[in-house]
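Internal ticket - ligand job 290, NAP:
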Amino acid sequence: MVVPTGSTRVAGVIGDPVRHSLSPALHNAAFAELGLDWTYLAFEVPVGRGADAVAAMRALGIEGLSVTMPHKDTVAAAVDELSPAAALLGAANCVRRDGDRLIGENTDGAGFLRSLRTQAGVDPAGLRTVVLGAGGAARAVIVALAAEGALVTVVNRSPDAAARAAALGGEAGGATAEALGGRSGSASVGGAEAARDADVVVNATPLGMTDSDPLPVDPALLSDSQIVVDLIYRPERTPLLEAAAEAGATTLNGVGMLLYQAAEQFTMWTGHDAPVDAMAAAVGLDLAGS
Ligand code: NAP
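stdout (structure tokens):
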């Protein structure tokens, strides 16, 4: 590892809790792999101090920030400008500099799409997709899929959250319709049985992180024509992915989304393609292990 000097450029993650974050290992591995004189730190920033952290980034000349719980909303409100995805979601998971201006970005959706495209070889345009969940990760995925022309059904325990997430997806689908030649993506609320006719099923709930969790969807609804994605990355093989593989489906875990969302941030800050294999190795995750 490079010992920091007066010219070392600094990036980091803000969050609380943040000490368990994989981001320092991911980004420092990428800097080392490319021989860049950069370093990446974890800053424990308590709830309510997200805007102060953005001011500190400005004052200290920090080059880039990753943003995690509980600051995604407050940071989105504190930067000078938002990317279209961050503006729609009202949440920034990353801040980059453009000269003196700070731009809030949200790379979760782009990370998910890159994982789907590169690892499963799938273009979501026109596909029937089901997203289980309507939280932060689900909303990023719903917006990304709808913006690419997919037809999204949102299935969630709380109907209000499902309706809000579907409305965001509908807005994203409509906004990109012109760029897609008039073929617009859409999002609506539905029941779990929609998984039976889906091309892609995405679990964006935490169900599967512990052994005692029930499956997030009835495995009888899964089949060999489908791609089943679980956003969970630890464990790398959830009971849902086991059941989906048994049904003959193509499976994908959350490692790709985790790595590619970080890779997008790395490229925004440094201008370099991220060495994702070195990043995966640094945190003991297997990009090919889905
Ligand atoms: P979140 O904002 O807390 O949302 C959780 C969602 O799951 C909500 O829609 C919630 O439904 C639903 N849910 C929670 N417990 C449930 C239960 N027992 N039964 C049914 N539904 C339940 O969480 P998040 O940040 O979106 O994260 C969701 C998952 O995605 C986590 O497993 C996380 O590790 C993973 N994730 C992965 C990546 C990646 O890069 N691979 C990135 C972010 C998140 P209600 O609306 O009814 O509460």
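Auto-summary: The mean pLDDT is 95. The pocket of NAP is lined by residues 108, 133-138, 156-158, 161, 204-207, 209, 231-233, 254, 257-258, 261 (CB under 6 Å).
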